[in-house]
Amino acid sequence: MGESVLTAGFAPADGALACEGVPLETIARDVGTPVFIYSAGAIRDAYTRLDRALAPVPHRLHYSVKANANVAVLALLRSLGAGVDIVSGGELYRATLAGLTGADIVFSGVGKTERELREALAAGILLFNVESEGELRLLDRVAGDIRVTAPVALRVNPEVSVDTPHHYTRTGERGDKFGVPYPDALAVAQLALTLPHTRLLGLDMHIGSQVSSVEPYRDGMLRLLELADDLRAAGAQDLRYLDIGGGLGVTYDTEDPIDLDEYAATVLPHAAASGLKLLVEPGRYLVGNAGVLLTRVLYRKEGGGREFVITDAGMNDLLRPSHYNAYHRIDAVRPRGGRTQADIVGPVCESGDFFALAREIDDVRPGDLLAIRSAGAYGFAMSSNYNARPRAAEVLVDGERFAEITAREQYEDLVRHETAHPTWRNA
Fold first, then answer.
1. Partner of 47 at 20 to 30 A CA spacing, among 75, 100, 203, 410?
2. Which range (152-166, 208-222, 275-289, 315-329) has the least confidence?
3. In the prediction, which pLDDT does 159 show?
4. CATH number of the domain at 2-39+288-414, please?
């Protein structure tokens, strides 16, 4: 299971790795490196599998834009029927460029600004996933200013135990910054029922990212449904949506992803019993295994008893290994046949600039290409210009064809909004 999912969209052809029907060597020749490459077929397959698993109940998948916000990727998912889950005004702008409309959009995030609230209200979004009493009161005021009613789903921190590979990716445990703490949720929800310019339409949770077991979803849903019963008893008549977030785990090595059959068997009975429309917010699950970061080997060297493979991609391109201690499988695009153990590192001036340490890999040489797997989520999205490095290009492959969907940045892009001769102002 893990191996087949990990290699979805990418397989050897004529002795070298290809994405669907396009050799990675062709993309490197035409677009250069480093470059993120995404398989449209793998994204479609992941979407279809999850959508079918939830088919017995009314539902919609709202893709979590933060995983990969490329407009072409958003447009592809829109064509499949997806809505989106956004966390900023910039993501709202990207979603609308991709053809998504207000009814396709839910807005999460603990720190929505007044400007973002106004923009989302003007766009007529489906739901605000409200995460605090302060946000609820501000949203009510802003909605009143422009004479509309804000559609609200209360994001509840269900305070359930979640086992994820890194504590940064846990968002539904007691003390996390996300959502309204469960003991306070009923009071905040009742406030939403009384405010003049908000309408409470749903309950929401998001327990974390890269979740591989179903028990936290069951425990969190039970807490949401208990809250729904209390609200109905208090007179809430408009509840329509049960949003259980995303976080479904994918494969980075030989582990199995979350079992969709088990997930559906856990989620569907509770969703059906609630009488509410189920919303799910997958991000990494749809795009993570659908992408690779293609990089070229610059140098080989030894030092202090260690072997180094130095590539033209760095931690500014793919931060996850350094930031999360994350594992990404790394394959030679055209294997030489020999093996070596090496640290695969980038050119960034940081000791934390690495993709793998003491990893057994093909005995690559300068000029060879490496594919860093499972880089479709939180790769380009978290990239930066650290060390004044232009960000990588992005390419989408669909069958026998490919397209550059983000042009490689140039040096002038790095300073486009800077000036060496500022216009001074007096205090």
1. 203
2. 152-166
3. 78
4. 2.40.37.10
- What pLDDT score does 5 carry? 54
Query: What is the mean predicted confidence (pLDDT) over 222-239?
Result: 92
162-212 per-position pLDDT tens digit: 554 544 444 444 557 778 999 999 999 999 999 999 999 999 998 887 887
- Domain 108-282 in the same topology as domain 2-39+288-414: no
Where do the domains of the chain lie?
A: 2-39+288-414, 108-282
Are the CB atoms for 9 and 19 separated by under 8 Å? Answer: yes
pTM, to two decimals: 0.94
Give me the active site residues, please. Answer: 349
Task: Identify the pLDDT of residue 25.
Answer: 98
| Residues 180, 131 contacting (CB under 8 angstroms) | yes
Q: Residue 416: left (phi > 0), alpha (psi -120 to 50), or beta?
A: alpha
What is the length of the chain? 427
Angle CA 106–81–155, to nearest 5: 20
Label residue 405 exposed, middle or buried (CB < 10 Å: 0-12, 13-18, 19+). middle
Query: At 161, is the pLDDT very low, low, confident or very high (cuts 50, 70, 90)?
Result: low
